[in-house]
Write a structure and sequence with these properties.
5 helices; mainly alpha; about 110 residues; elongated; transmembrane
Length: about 110
Amino acid sequence: MGYERTKREYDLRAMNRVSESEYESRMVVWDNLALSAGTEGGAGGFIDTVFSKLQQNLKDSNRELSIDYSEFVTMANEEVNYIRVNVADKKVQAFWYATILLMLCGSIVLCI
């Protein structure tokens, strides 16, 4: 999970050049994934918990970053969806890699 987080962090910072508040909102979701494994509140409860922790962390560090709750919910839902599709679903990834490999092998066989 660490590699995927680092890759996503680079994507947000270097490739997409998102704002500081959007970056913090998305990364706090990654930081709290390990804590959410045992919670039964669902995605809504998880997002509320993460938002509370983010606000507390900003207050504790005396940062002047302001994040609106509705924007946070939108970004957090997008990030959770990104994680589900691109990181957590290893079976789908394995299927697509196998499909690409079969297409490459088929192309090589046709060329020979």
